[in-house]
Amino acid sequence: MTSLRLSAPFAGWAMAIDAVPDPVFAERMMGDGIAIDPVDGTLRAPCDATVLMIAPTRHAVTLKLANGAELLIHIGLETVALAGDGFTTHVADGAVVKAGDPLISLDLDRVAERARSLITPIVVANDGYAVSVLARDKAVGIGDPLIEIQALAPVAAAAPVSEDSASCEVVIPLANGIHARPAARIAATLKPFAAEVRFAAHDKTANARSTVAMLGLGLRHGDTLLISARGEDARGAVTTVAALIESGMGEAGEPPAPAAIATTTGAATAAPGFAVGTTMPFVIADLAVAEAGGGVMAEAAALDTALAAVRAKLAEAETGKGAEIALAHQAITEDPDLIAGARARIALGKSAGFAWRAATRDQIATIEATGDALLIERAADLKDIERQVIAAISGAPAPAAPELADATVLIADELLPSQFLSLDPARLAAIVTARGGPTSHVAILAASAGVPMIVAAGPDVLAIAAGRTMIVDADAARFAVDPDAGTLAQARARVEQARAAHAAHIAAAGTDARTADGTRVEIFANLAIPEETDRAVAAGAEGCGLLRTEFLFLDRADPPSEDEQAAVYADIARRLDGRPLILRTLDIGGDKPVPYLPMPAEENPALGARGIRLSLARPALLKTQFRAMLKGVPAGQCRIMLPMIVDAAEFARARTIYDEAVAETGAQRAPLGVMIETPAAAMLADTLAAQADFLSLGTNDLTQYALAADRGNAATAAMIDGLHPAVLRLIAAAVAGARRHGRWIGSCGGMASEPLAAAILIGLGLDELSATPAAIPALKAAIRRLDIDHCRALAAQALDLGTAAEVRALAAQAIREAA
Ligand code: PEP
Ligand code: MG
User: Fold this and answer.
1) Which ranges carry the HPr domain (predicted)?
2) Ligand 1 pocket: which of 319, 544, 553, 587 to mutate (most atoms <8 Å of CB)?
3) Rg of the chain, C-alpha, whole Å
4) 469-473 and 274-282: which strand pairing?
5) Cys staple from 709: which of 410, 526, 596, 719, with CB 3.0 to 4.6 Å?
């Protein structure tokens, strides 16, 4: 039964949901429906149904209807505050009721006196239903037709495509099926479309804008998926999503062999390595939440605020694996089904934290019911966001990370990504978890931090007490507790060998990087906070190629003074101990608001008043920054560069302000350079190099602007690859421009941290690569194995290719052959 007619559950005045004087309902945050201003005191069932839940405060009820719709009837507004006074229930949770059966009675006068209003919203709280209003702006009696609720079944594959509906079938080519990251990309891709888009497979359907609902379908490699849509742009939505899935989303291939997939019957390697350490059990306790809420409006607002806070925190993740995972986590915070599930509970008087947890647990149960090990791994992501949102709602400080002794082997049932990030990886010898899977996000993080990890080791590991000696051979997914003396001695010798090799690596990082044939390449570090400097120097940084000065300007009420800035720049220069320091002037815009710089919200902040544009609009701010740099950093160490430059006119305007700062401070003039991070600057590099003292590529922005792909958008994340030949040609143009005027040119975008890309950047003729500090020892080691002529030949060949994938394949092969 897909369509159901509901009769009025109260006698009263029927009104449109938009007219309810409460934005939570009027803006359909709880769902679509209607409202009645009642004149009688008994709420009756509007159709045959099952009672899902009566609010403990008896002011609201949810009913499950025969077509699956979940109907919320909320008697009055803000009536949760009455704590049940004036309400009497006639049914209990789980009761099966017939149309017209009494559900709740209320003392009309008593409730009317004490509540904001008696207006009673009646809404469909779950997704996938269309509501047609049958009576509006008129009086209705009990049993009069009120609304019709239609289940939105997916359009059949054979159905003719009409103006506003479309469907098509695709076979899933992704090796691991539709797991969290592809699901997040699909949801993100649909954002510009208005159409209602649903997926159907395995006799189930799901909202294609809901990551968790998609996971609940358990879509695996080779499954046939029916995509259907309704709405004005249905056809565009279907073809876009179908093309995205059929592209393989960067994960096309055969499913992994069953042995590689963790099951509860066998441990699996999540991150390679070998370690000996001392066990420490790690228990994740649920954060406490009260069940009862403090009013629908307040709790709904608390949830929204907490979701926004968690989203903002996730947006801070910069680059690499952490940023990719953060995008998938952001999608969970935007998931419409999860949010609707929580809001429906809030409407029943539950607290925001309780509602969010209950909605999350529902979704986890759906995912677990698929029985798919890979999907079940994603439940950890949902639990992680559950904890973060509940912590944000409570406003309590995040639970302190456990203090780790040196060489700790952490034993846990499972570990959430944010929990891993709160631990000190330097003290973690290894991790062993009872559950989890080798492709979980925490496994990716452990691998990138070099911490060996075994997952799916089974519940017995939870019985291992603290303080035991454990050998963890994560490569072989094996471990031993309290081994005999001989085995332990052997294991310790193996760990010692690895440590010595690593130490040799770090020691070598301190010497200059030269290719095998002796060509010098400077290796600098990108820094975003002063504290990173020591780590960068210890890792072999020969200078700082990019100081992102934004850290001084964000999260505060006033701009930093000249003296405050100068002191911080001086501190970093001191820590660099005479090594060059390239300071970039402020690079913020409409996407990173600061209270003391009123910036209108922009539709396209990446194309808006950011970087040098913002500084030129506020010359006093720019001059103060120039003065602080000149005063704080010793001459000879100091170089200054300008972000987001487009052409020589912009540079000239900034230089005029710089010249004034030099004259006013009496400081020695430090070189002034430009970042090449717009295609315009790359193409005009020769005209810029004629005026600027040096150039530095910002490959992150150069890539996003060249490929028209937002670097912060999950839907385009896979396209962001600086090895795309279009980007390489822009880099080649920039190098040619710098050479024409004998200028130094470096690179400080994320690309320079990747040894594969470094070979091509060196081949293209860059003088310097500025990388993230942790990447430096490996980068230097890789450069020592390269030959400059091979790098030049590789770069020349790459410029003639057509796609990033071709360039990657070529570079990987060239490096393999050279090894
Ligand atoms: C870049 O765009 O490559 C760059 C280094 O600047 P940011 O990442 O800070 O925008
Ligand atoms: Mg940039």
Assistant:
1) 165-255
2) 587
3) 30
4) antiparallel
5) 719
CB-based contact 146:14 (threshold 8 Å): yes
Location of structure tokens 């759906």: 366
Mean pLDDT value of segment 9-20: 90
Name every residue whose Cβ is closer than 8 Å to that of residue 416 and which is 6 or more positions away in sequence: 284, 380, 381, 383, 384, 387, 442
746 lines ligand 1 (CB under 6 A): no
The ligand 1 atom at the shortest distance from the C-alpha of residue 319 is 8
Tell me what pLDDT residue 428 has.
93
10 Å CB burial of residue 395 (0-12, 13-18, 19+) is: exposed
126 Cβ below 6 A of ligand 1: no
Q: Which of 471-475, 772-776, 781-785 has the lowest mean pLDDT?
A: 772-776
What domains can you pick out in the chain, each with its CATH number?
3-151 (2.70.70.10), 165-250 (3.30.1340.10), 268-283+401-492 (3.50.30.10), 296-394 (1.10.274.10), 518-818 (3.20.20.60)
* Ligand 1 in reach of 549 Cβ (< 6 A): no
Token output for 566: 């100068």
Contact 523, 513 (CB under 8 A): yes
Mutate to test the pocket of ligand 1, among 554, 678, 701 (most ligand atoms within 8 A of CB): 701
In whole angstroms, what is the distance from residue 33 CA to residue 445 CA? 44
Whether residue 748 has its Cβ less than 6 Å from ligand 1 = yes
For all residues of the chain together, what is the average pLDDT?
87
Rounded-to-integer distance, Cα 667 and Cα 720, Å: 41
Q: What is the pLDDT of residue 439?
A: 61
pTM exceeds cut of 0.85: no
CA diameter of the chain:
92
Q: What is the pLDDT of residues 593-621, one digit of tens each?
A: 677 887 777 788 889 999 999 999 999 99
Q: How many CB atoms lie within 10 A of CB 553?
A: 20
The residue whose C-alpha atom lies closest to atom 10 belonging to ligand 1 is 701
Secondary-structure breakdown of the chain: helix, strand, coil percentages, each rounded to the nearest 5: 40, 20, 35
Q: Could you give the strand order of the β-sheet that contains 204-207, starting from the edge strand earlier in sequence?
A: 165-171, 224-230, 196-201, 204-207
Q: Residue 303 and residue 283: Cα distance in Å, rounded?
A: 26
Residue 260 in this model has a pLDDT that exceeds 50? no
Sign of the CA dihedral 36, 41, 44, 50? Answer: positive
Contact 354, 345 (CB under 8 A): yes
3 state SS of 472: strand
> Scanning the structure block, which residue is given the tokens 């009120």?
146
Residues carrying an active site annotation: 441, 748
